[in-house]
Amino acid sequence: MINCELVLVPAFADNYVYLIVNGETCAVVDPGEAGPVRKAISVRHLNVSDILLTHHHSDHIGGCLELAQTFGSAVTGPADPRIPGEFKAVGEGDTVAVGGIEFYVFAVPGHTSTHIAFYSAAEGCLLSGDSLFACGCGRLFEGSPAEMHASLQKLAALPDDTEIYCGHEYTLNNAEFAVSVDPENEDLVERLGVIRQLRAEGQPTIPSTIGEEKATNPFLRCEDAALQAALGLSGADAVDVFAEIRSRKDAW
Ligand code: ZN
Ligand code: FE
Fold first, then answer.
1. Which of 86, 184, 206, 222 could be a cystine partner for 238, CB 3.0 to 4.6 Å?
2. Is there a contact between 79 and 104 (Cβ–Cβ < 8 Å)?
3. Going from the N-terminus, what domains does the chain have, and what CATH number goes with each?
4. Region 6-30: what's the mean pLDDT?
5. pLDDT digits (tens, 9 = 90+) for 35-55
6. Rounded to the nearest whole angstrom, what is the distance from the C-alpha of residue 220 to the centroid of ligand 2?
7. pTM greater than 0.85 (yes/no)
8. Is 130 in the active site?
């Protein structure tokens, strides 16, 4: 983030809620629970003008109604009847202005059928929820490998220095898996060392960048010859490579 302050609020065991702070107010992204958000905003004396939701899972929306009722926040999320309460539904190509920042909406189905991501070109940041993770991607609960692969390719096309703020601290597990399928990738091996160090110190691994992910995240590297060879899939279609990596990760 260039102009705004972005605060990571840990929730549950490994979720991240984000506060996009602008003066005395903030936008809250994916408030899975209200308690940690209330604490984080009260020490900073903030109001909640807006709430952004990436998808309907309870670990991302569980605190939304309570916060919206308390602060009168405007809620924006994907068009999905599984999200309770009043909110503005947005989809691919829409823009949302929160705290003076304009976010472009990407539809990124795969983890859920209506999952969206929010991108600010001016701030150079992407709020990816459970679509693109640091060194991984979300499980395919409601989408095919082809859908998720296409969703991630849209995000991979963003500028390399775009910062990625994802929904979970899964990075260490993701990177350990990634090395198991892409062992010759020196950037990845080096990144695993950095991630281990950060986690040993209790530090978050967020944000990463699109450039870092393209170099090390196996789900963005389905056309890489060395990765394909390591999987025994040299010359295979990128979607088939993606499907193989995803099913290995599910069983890992
Ligand atoms: Zn989810
Ligand atoms: Fe989640």
1. 222
2. no
3. 5-250 (3.60.15.10)
4. 97
5. 999 999 999 999 999 999 999
6. 20
7. yes
8. yes
